[in-house]
Write a structure and sequence with these properties.
A 6-stranded mixed beta sheet has the order 10-12-9-13-11-14. A 4-stranded mixed beta sheet has the order 5-8-6-7. β3 and β4 form a beta hairpin. The chain is an alpha+beta fold. α1 runs parallel beside α3. It is globular, with a radius of gyration of 21 Å. Helices cover 33% and strands 26% of the residues. It binds adenosine-5'-diphosphate and magnesium ion. The site of magnesium ion (MG) has 2 residues, from loops.
């Protein structure tokens, strides 16, 4: 895009043949030099747009997510971790649809043409891209406050897509992995304490549950990834499906690191903390053995945490009969 900015009364191009424009092309050349490709990319970085071959019989699955400095990651986050997370949160959306990753684009807004920052960013971004064979096929590079927008494209069989509106009364509710770790790292960061390294890893380098999403296709009914907190995100499934949910608070899976928090705070973080990027899905009770089987096969814990009921609300129920007051739920932008 050709942008003109009024600066000191003069109009100045930032992307043509000015010294600042040259820097933009240097950055793009750095990205292009490191990106890898695959057979279904007819034309990748370098033209006005990419040309991609969608296999017949598959649906194209598209998702986009932006990370802003200070909002979606602490300002002291390492460039490689920002690169990893920017792609991970997008891959998590593909996982939640039961899709296989294929291609992505990267829109970068950078305060300056900092090549070493970009190299670090690409280390994390491309490490994760390589792991899931998702190819960077284009993007945009502009000057502005640090912000990273990634769009991912995936592929799914039409009858295997996992949607939010497919939960049925009587379904079990499941989650992958453990809950609350990323939010626990943020609590420690905000209070100025030392951050437990395993919690910090969960905040900075979430693992997109791609294998799990593919494995539960055909077994699960509805699915969502947990980005804003279990109760909030499960609420989206309930609204879309026209059902209610009961969650057993004591059944929520915990990491070893989170067990060091007292039970009240731990359960609050598990139920309402954001940023874990685990999958929450519903499945008929007849699928229990099948789900245990695929969990073992893909090496991801899958824990039954409740059931879908008639109604419209998400109820959190402690098994010891004590009163569990639902804390302020999840993270809401503009709230
Ligand atoms: P245009 O002005 O036609 O949009 P650009 O100069 O912005 O072209 O981009 C040139 C090429 O580099 C395009 O193929 C674009 O997709 C790619 N590109 C630009 N920025 C990025 C980026 N951050 N990551 C990957 N590819 C990029
Ligand atoms: Mg452009």
């Amino acid at each position: 895009m050709h942008v003109f900015m009024a600066r000191g009364g003069a109009l100045e191009s930032i992307v043509t043949d000015s010294p600042r424009g040259t820097a933009e092309f240097d950055l793009i050349a750095r990205i292009r030099a490191r990106a890898f490709t695959r057979d279904d990319v007819i034309l990748g970085i370098g033209d006005d747009a990419a040309l991609l071959k969608v296999p017949s019989g598959k649906l194209l699955v598209v998702a986009t997510d932006t990370l802003n400095s200070g909002v979606h990651f602490p300002v002291d986050t390492a460039p490689a971790d920002i690169g990893w997370k920017a792609l991970a949160v997008n891959l998590s959306d593909l996982a939640a649809m039961g899709a296989e990753p294929a291609w992505c684009t990267l829109s970068l807004s950078l305060p300056g043409a900092d090549a070493s920052w970009l190299d670090g960013f690409l280390d994390g971004f491309l490490e994760l891209a390589n792991r899931y064979r998702i190819v960077l096929v284009g993007g945009d590079t502009t000057r502005g406050p640090l912000s990273v927008c990634v769009t991912v494209h995936g592929l799914v069989d039409a009858d295997k897509a996992l949607r939010r509106d497919a939960a049925k009364v009587g379904d079990d509710i499941w989650v992958t992995g453990t809950l609350g770790d990323a939010a626990a790292a943020l609590v420690q960061w905000q209070s100025g304490q030392a951050i437990d390294p395993s919690l910090r890893q969960r905040l900075d380098r979430p693992t997109p549950r791609i294998e799990a999403g593919l494995a539960i296709a055909g077994l699960a009914h509805a699915c969502i990834d947990i980005s804003d907190g279990l109760l909030v995100d499960l609420g989206h499934v309930c609204v879309a499906s026209g059902v209610g949910a009961e969650i057993e608070v004591d059944a929520l899976p915990s990491s070893a690191a989170l067990l060091l928090f007292d039970a009240g705070q731990r359960q609050h973080l598990q139920a309402s903390g954001g940023d874990d990027y685990e999958l929450c899905f519903t499945a008929p009770t007849a699928a229990r053995a099948g789900i245990a089987g695929v969990a073992g096969k893909c090496g991801v814990a899958m824990t039954r945490i409740g059931r879908i009921v008639e109604g419209a609300r998400v109820h959190a129920i402690p098994t010891d009969g004590s009163e569990w007051t639902q804390p302020k739920a999840g993270y809401v932008h503009f709230a």
